[in-house]
Amino acid sequence: MSADLNSLRDFAALVSLCMLLALVCVPASAQDNPIANPGFELDEDADGLPDGWLFSWQKTMNTDTDDMDRQEPDWGIDEDIFHSGTRSIRLGVQRPGDDGVFSQENVALPGEAKIYRLSAWIKTEGCDGGGLHIAVVYQGTDGKWLGANYDAIYMARDADWRRGVALIEPPAGTDHLRLRVWANFRRKGPITAWVDDLVLEATDLEQAPPMAHLDPAPMPPLTDADRARGFVPFAANYIDVVMPAIVPTAGQLNSTLRIFATPGEYEPISFAVRALRDLSGVSARITPFAGAPGELPSEAVEAGVVRRMIRKMHPRTDAMVDLPTFIEPMHPVDVPADTSQWFWFTVHVPEDAAPGKYQATVTVAAGDASAEIPVELEVLPFTLDQPEGIAWGMYDYNRTFSDEPGAMLAKYQDMFAHGMTSVGVCGNHGAECSMADGQVVVQWTGETDLERAMAAYVQAGFSEPVQWLMGGDTAKFALQFGELGSPEYAAAYGGVIRAVLAKAEAEGWPEIIFQPVDEAFEHRPGFERMMIEMAILKDIGVPVEADGMNGKPEGLDEAFPLIDYFNFHDGPFLQRGQYEPELWQAFADRVAAAGKSIWYYNVEIACHRPENARFSQGFHLWNTGVQGAFTWAYQSYIPEPYAVNENRKFVFMHRFPAMGDEPGGPSIGFEALREGIDDYKYLYTWQRACEKALAEGTAEQKAAAEASRLWLAEKLAEIDYSKWNGQPTQGEWLGGDQVTDEGGKAVSGHLKVPGVFSFSDYDAIRRRLAEFITQMQ
């Protein structure tokens, strides 16, 4: 080798090193960007992998195994498609079960800040369920895992180059980051994505601003009277969340609000006001319903205004947003210009209401200006049948916000009035326990946690067994006599359970379904304890429930004989996020053959997403044939539920309590849970009508039964659970993710659960069922 050639190569190496240093130290988009090779321009060894980056696809998660059927993605450096420079990276995944991830380790934090801005340019195509995630993993010294945000930047719709932005707040002790560019992280479906120009930079923000919601739609044509009034009222479907930025369509203006219900049923009247200028003291009232059948009492309607709060979108995200949250009793409210304010009235049709059509008028007033909205209620000529063996319940602690003697009963009566047939009682039995002559002695006082809950349960009138998510006092007592798994532990633990059963028999308590440990499948340290305690419970002969097995289903076959109620998170998924209908059906058949039951829990978990709440309790259960749904949680017991949540801890609150000047009220999700239960009741009433018509009806009634079965089967076939993955059960914004000029996150459009009916379909299906029921009577 000649000296000249060596010199040339040394010079080339020096140039390459200088280029890399330039890319690392002075990126095009920001100074002090610590991400190495952020534009993917360098591949010094020409191996197709950008310098400073790793790529993996065979095992990308710690649960992956060697026997998984994985297909290598289409990945690498792309010199034909890029945002700037001459290159980008490409990740193409074609199957739901495959994924691929570019990773960069040891990314230093740029400077000292509380909040950092991460951005990237992304192009996507062929999105069919899959998404592109740019994730950050927070690490301390020696690589200690401190947390992660796998949805920092997320794009899942076909689009040309877009800038994705995330504001990230590393937890205390974060020394460096692991950066991941991940295609199909949730393993939901195909996607091809190109990524370029990553930047990580410090900000001077002390807290991340709430996520904005935008609606780019123009206002529909307005009349001179509308403009002079300063506002327009518009019809609003209550499962289509009325965000303050939502702009009404022309079809929502000047509409008659039409609802229908059976005697005894509750039904919402939903409408909103769009302010054309700043308004003060906007309120609404309604006249009593009257018509040919007679008049309903004025107290049949409860008038409310929807209050917004700065809340997290979902427990598993950091995004805070100004959200419609709960319904306060009617009072005047100020509405800024170009803002929509939601109103929510609830009609409780009297049990003895005569069938037919009734009319009422809503008057919306702001100062001297007012507008009227006609309302029509049709009372149907039948009542809804109550299904047996279906458990609808709220998880709830044995606590109350009020010290009043009837507070526990009041909240159970509230749940009952919202259609619940059970309660997921959470907590300790609360009694003093001791051992005397080898026998467990439990001191019941009438005021222990379990006694108070059961007394309220019986008095409220719930029809199904109670689920007891047990606290730790039974296990703590048993550990005094032997280690977990020992005969002494089993004797002490079983002694407490037998004392509970004796008390239940003496007091006339309902059957108790015992859940000894919460989500032990997903949170593995509790799995051994769960198995031991379930075995003790089964030896005693009581029904046992376990939940969350689709978080980490390992051990399900081993646990199967010990479980009577299998409580799955979200829905028909043996592994969360992987819809495999044949495997699910085989498992459901196995459960049915063993005389056991399947429930769902936490399909609705945000408290402020009414479509999800409604679907989860009705069509979801019916479509998959399961026997119950439990929702977390009726109330979070925190000192100040109305305070701004600076720590971003999710506050579960389906009923906001009355406190001081706060009147409280039900969340919009809580009201929609009841509507979902009513959907199930319509389906159940229709099914019984079909059975009766086919067994003993006229030719016309038989024909109606057959036609209705075909029609409903076609409608239910529209439900596509393959669209559910990660958090879509909680809804996705149809307008997609946006980025504000300040680099903050924004969303736009309407909040919609994917893979299910349109907003209008829910009532349309219920209405058609009512018509079939009437025909078969």
Sketch the major β-sheet.
8 strands, parallel
Strand order of the largest sheet: 30-29-26-25-34-33-32-31
Mean pLDDT score = 92
Structural class: alpha+beta
> What general outline do the C-alpha atoms trace?
globular
List keywords for this structure.
eight-stranded parallel β-sheet; five-stranded antiparallel β-sheet; 40 strands; disordered N terminus
Would you spell out the secondary-structure blueprint of this structure?
Blueprint: H1 3-25, E1 54-56, E2 74-78, E3 88-93, E4 100-108, E5 116-125, E6 132-139, E7 145-155, E8 159-168, E9 176-183, E10 191-202, E11 212-214, H2 224-229, E12 231-235, E13 257-261, E14 266-275, E15 279-286, E16 290-291, E17 294-295, E18 301-302, E19 304-312, E20 320-329, E21 333-335, E22 340-348, E23 356-366, E24 369-379, E25 391-397, H3 407-417, E26 422-427, E27 432-436, E28 439-443, H4 449-460, E29 466-470, H5 473-478, H6 487-507, E30 512-515, H7 527-540, E31 545-547, H8 556-559, E32 565-569, H9 581-593, E33 597-601, H10 610-617, H11 619-624, E34 628-631, E35 655-656, E36 665-666, H12 668-696, H13 699-716, E37 732-733, E38 737-739, E39 745-748, E40 751-752, H14 759-776
Parallel strand pairs: 11-39, 13-24, 25-26, 25-34, 26-29, 29-30, 31-32, 32-33, 33-34
Antiparallel strand pairs: 1-4, 2-3, 3-10, 4-9, 5-8, 5-10, 6-7, 6-9, 12-14, 14-22, 15-21, 15-23, 16-17, 18-22, 19-20, 23-24, 27-28, 35-36, 37-40, 38-39
